[in-house]
Amino acid sequence: MILDLKTWIFVCAALLVAAGCATPPPPVVPPAPKSYVVLMDNQDGTVGQLSVSSTGGEILLNKSHSGVDLDGTGTTPYTVDESRINRDFAEAFSAQPPLPVSFVLHYNIGDTVLTVESQAMIPAILEAAKNRPAPDVSVIGHTDTMGTVEANEILGLQRAKSVAEIIKNAGLNVHDLTISSHGEKNLMVITLDNTPEPKNRRVEITIR
User: 54, 75, 118, 187: which has the fewest Cβ within 10 Å?
Assistant: First the structure.
């Protein structure tokens, strides 16, 4: 069959209209990721517990990296691998302020002289404070139960002030430096009165 020019034009036009009227397939939209909660290690490596309520009841998370969906359908905890945690919570991790760090320095009996081991910790303390733009530093002095309560209150404060002086002399941009003494209160090792206990002769430093 031979078509004349008008017929060819009509056929071509009809094909173009048909093609233009065809409905394109909808784009494939990936399902939204599920919201979930995951239990992480504490800073010291310990793991706590987290109870999650859902339509299926209470779900207890008590293992590191255990997670459960928050859409109400999750009933069994599952393990969340490190790569998924880093991907899903990258923004939260980047916005998280540095966690507080604590140090304990110990002293020779009855004075403000640090033990050799504690003297060696000073650079690490200064470095921890230096890594924060404007740290808050708390310094609390303690004693053992040798001597009177009043004398130990003074000795604890002297120890705290000696550590604070080290921090000040390091030229750090400290936002707030709090100095206090607990004397022979709040013993690390509970003892009787007039008992020399090395672990109680200490200064506790917290950097936030």
Answer: 75
138: left (phi over 0), alpha (psi -120 to 50) or beta: beta
Of the candidates 201, 102, 90, 195, the residue with the CA atom closest to the CA atom of residue 142:
201
User: Token match 């941009």: residue?
Assistant: 173
**Which tokens sit at 41?**
């290690």
β-pairing, 50-54 vs 176-183, is unpaired
Q: Which candidate, 207, 174, 201, 179, places its Cα nearest to that of 112?
A: 201
Nearest Cα to Cα of residue 109 among 166, 155, 140, 150:
155
Q: Is the pLDDT of residue 11 over 60?
A: no
Residues 6+ apart with CB under 8 A from 121: 103, 105
- Of how many residues is the chain composed? 208
Average the pLDDT over each of 13-17, 31-35, 81-85 and give the range with the smallest value.
13-17
What pTM, to 2 d.p., does this model score?
0.64
Fold (topology level) of 101-207? 60s Ribosomal Protein L30; Chain: A; (3.30.1330)
What pLDDT is attached to residue 120? 98
**Orientation angle between helical segments 149-169 and 122-130, nearest 10 degrees:** 60
Stretch(es) of the chain classified as CATH 3.30.1330.60: 101-207
Angle, CA 71 vertex, CA 68 and CA 74 arms, to 5°: 40
Helix intervals (H) in 24-108: 82-88, 90-95
